[in-house]
Every structure is written in structure tokens, then in C-alpha cells.
């Protein structure tokens, strides 16, 4: 498996981990029965549970363009120092983003977010300028 595809797989595992964290924290706040129901009368999670939910949603939004870039590189047979560095930057940035989001560290969270975006851009460079 290429580094880029491995990074995509690990990013997907991170997404699953974040949803498990968000769900378990929401259950702690609202109770198992309330969260497992239709949740029409359950308050939105707050504090760390809310941050976990938002970290998950943010990764979900950013995973799509990353996956498209990685799968395009794979389909075109492109793997270079740019695509490898971009894949690691995305994964590292997203892990850091999740940790900083959960801890409520805003400035570093934003830097980690942009690190992930830079990773996507690095993957696209050799695809667009071949």
C-alpha cells in the first residue's frame, strides 16, 4: 500500500475514533437512553462533548477533498515527494487538530487545520502540473 493510501486509511480510522469519542462523551452528558433515542428533545452536547462532535464534523468535511486528491494520485500513478509529504502533513495536521480541538486550544487548532489543508495542496501540485 502506498504512503498516500495508508495516510487515507489512518485518517479514516481517526474519523471513526472521533465519532466514538464524541458519542461516548455525549452519552455521559445526556444519558444512554436519551442519546440512543431519536434525540429530538436532547440538548446539543456542550463542553468537550460539543468540541468532540465539531472535531469529527470538521474532519469529515476535510476528508473528502483529501480522499479525492489521494485517489486521483493513485489512479494517475503519481507518487512523489510532494504527494508523500502532503499525505503525512494532512494526517499529522488532522491528528493535532483533533487533539487541540478536544483540549480547547484555539490558536494551535487553527494552525493544525491549515497544516492539513497544505497537505492536500501538496498532493495536488504534481497532479495539476505534470
Could you describe the 3D structure shown?
- The chain crosses the membrane at residues 67-91, 98-129.
- It comes from Gallaecimonas xiamenensis 3-C-1.
- It is found in: Membrane.
- This protein has one domain (3-128): Membrane associated eicosanoid/glutathione metabolism-like domain (Four Helix Bundle (Hemerythrin (Met), subunit A)).
- It has 5 helices and no strands.
- It has helices at 3-30, 32-36, 47-76, 81-103, 106-128.
- It is elongated, with a radius of gyration of 17 Å.
- The relative contact order is 0.16.
- The model has no long low-confidence stretch (mean pLDDT 93).
Give a topology summary.
Elements (H helix, E strand, L loop, with lengths): L2 H28 L1 H5 L10 H30 L4 H23 L2 H23 L2
CATH topology name, in short, is Four Helix Bundle (Hemerythrin (Met), subunit A)
CATH-defined superfamily: Membrane associated eicosanoid/glutathione metabolism-like domain
Overall domain count: 1
Number of helical elements: 5
Strand content: under 5%
The overall strand count is 0
**Shape annotation:** elongated
Q: What is the terminal-to-terminal distance? A: 23 Å
Chain-averaged pLDDT: 93
For this entry, give a set of tags.
130 residues; Four Helix Bundle (Hemerythrin (Met), subunit A); 5 helices
Question: In summary, what is this structure?
Answer:
The protein has 130 residues and is mostly helical. It has helices spanning 3-30, 32-36, 47-76, 81-103, 106-128. The radius of gyration is 17 Å and the shape is elongated.
